C-alpha cells in the first residue's frame, strides 16, 4: 500500500485516537511549540478571510505563536496580530459571505501594488444560508460568486499557499431559532459547489487551491460538544490549527515525528556508495552460485552405459569458500537494508502516531508473561545467573521494552521509571558478564576485544550508513561499547589482577577493590562535571561518534542516567565469585542458595525492597527529580530480582526457553525496532496494512523478529571472517577497518560541507 500524497491525506482524512488526539490517515502529525511555530513562520504574512468560523481558526492559529493571546475585539470586523520578535503578521479579514467584497479583496493581492500573503485561509457559507433563509437562489448566487473568485485564488496559489476551508456540519438540535435554516443538507450542497468549481481550470496544474476538508471529519465527532451547535469546541479548533501548521511547516522544519507533507530525503553520497556495494554483493553472489550449480550438474552421478551401474562423482561438493560466505551474508544484508530504507526513509509505507492507553500496554505484557511460563524447561547448570537465566532475563526485558515503545507508554511516569530499571539491568549484566569473563579467564587479548566490539557495533554502523543517522542516535550501543572499554581498561591496566593470581595471595583482592574505588571516583567526578565530560568526548574524531544535533549533551545525559549500575554489576560479580570460590553458597540442583534461615530472611528483604521501589516509582510526580535518584536506587530492584530468582533452588534450575530465545537476539531487536517496527526513528508506528491495526501489528512484528534473527546470524558469520584468531591476519583486518572508517569520516565531512 503506497503512502501517496501525505499532504492530501492530512487535509482530508483521519480519525480520533481517544477523545482529543487526531490521527491523519497514513502519516504523523507533529505538535508544534510556539518557539518552533515562530521559527517556521519568521517574516511571513498570513491572512484568514471569512466568517466567524474562520475567526475561530485564526485565534487558534495565533495561539500557537503566542499562547497569551485573548479573543477580544470586534467580532464582526478585521482583527490584526503581529509578533515583532519574529516579524510575523497574521490578519483576520471579516468577509462572512462569498461576494463582490471578498472578490475585491482577493483581487487586490493578485495585482502588483499590494504584497501577496504567504498563506491565505478562506471560507464562508453559513451567513449566506442564514441571511437568505436557506433559499435555492442564494445557493445559485454562491456558485456564481465562487466561480468569479476561483481564477483569482488559483492565480495566488502559484506563489502562495491557498486553503479553502469547507463548511463543518452543525448540531441542528442546539441551533438557535435564528439559525434553524442552517441545515447539514444545505451545508453539503455549498461544500459540493466549492469542491466542483475551485481548481476546475487547473486540474493538471501543481498550483492548486488546497481543500481543507478534514475539519468536517473532526466536527462530525465533536460538534455535539459545541456551545451553540454552530461553532466548534476549542479542542477541535486547536486540532485544525495544528493541522494547518503541519501542512505548511513540516517541509521547512522537518520534524522527525511529523511525516505528513515531508518530501523524501535525497540520497547522500555515502548511501549511494552503500547501495552500489550491496548491489555488487548480490550480483557477485548470484554469479558464484550460478557457477557452483553448473559444476554440480557436471559432477552429478551418471549411469555407466557399459555396466549399467551408477558412477559416483570423482569430486565431492566443495566447502563454502570465505568469499562466497561473505557475498552471501552481504547479499542478505543488502536485501534487509533495502527493507529498512523503504520502511523509514522512502515515502512508501504509512506511519502513524503512538497513542497510550493502559490496556494497550498491560494486556500484551500479561499475554507474553503467561506465554513465557508455558515454555519452562530445566537449565543445564544451576549456578547463579547461568547462561540460560541471563538470556531469559534479557528476553523478557526486551519484550517489555518493545511493548513500552510501541504503546507510547513513556507518557505514563510509573511505567517509565520501571522501564528505566530494565535498561539499567541490561547495563548491570554488561558489568557482571564482562567482569566475570576477564576475572576468571584472564584473557585480555585484542582478539576478544575486537570480537565484542564487532558484535556490538556491526549493525549500528551499517544503519548509520544506510539510514543516514549519527552513531549516538542508537544510544544504547555506544553506551554498552564505552562501558565495555571502561571495564576492559580497569582490569587490563597494570597491575592485571585476575582470579588465578588472587587465589595465591589474598592481598590482590584488596588491590582489585582499590581499582574499583578509583573507577567509582572517576564516575562520580564526571557525573558532576559536565564540562569535563564534554571536553573528553568533544575531541575529534570522538565527537563524530558521540555528538547529536551538534553537541554531546544527549550522550552525557544518557551516560549519567545509569552511571553507577555497571560498577554495581562488577562489584556483584566480584562478591559472588569470591563467595563461590570459598564455597559459602550452595548451587546444587534444588538446594537453596544459603541456609534455610538466611535464605528466608534474604527473600523477605528482597521482596520488600522490590515492592518498595515499585511503590516509590509509581508515586513519582516529576520525571526530572526521579531521574536524579534513579542511578543510586535502581540497583535495589535489580539485586532484589536476582535474589528472588536465585535463592530458591527450584527457581534457579528452570528457565523459560521462550524468553531465552528472544534474549539471544535482544540487541538486534532493540536496534531494528527503530525503523522496521516503529517508524520515523521510533516516534511513530509503521503501517504496512492500513485500516487493520491488530493485523498490521502481527504482520510487522513477524517480519521484524525474523529480520532481527537473520541479522544476528549474519553478524555471527561475519565476525568469524572479519575478526580472525591469528594475530597477523587480525592486524591486517584492523588496518582495513581503520582505512574504512577514515574514508567514512572523509565522505561524512564532504557531505556536511555540501549541506551547509
From TrEMBL:
Major site of localization recorded for this protein: Golgi
Q: Where in the cell is it found?
A: Golgi apparatus membrane
**EC id:** 2.3.1.45
The UniProt entry's GO CC annotations, sorted and at most eight, read: Golgi membrane
Q: Which residues form the NXPE C-terminal domain?
A: 22-95
Q: Does the keyword Transmembrane helix apply?
A: yes
Family of this protein: Belongs to the PC-esterase family. CASD1 subfamily.
Q: What is this protein's name?
A: N-acetylneuraminate (7)9-O-acetyltransferase
Q: Which organism is it from?
A: Eurypyga helias (Sunbittern)
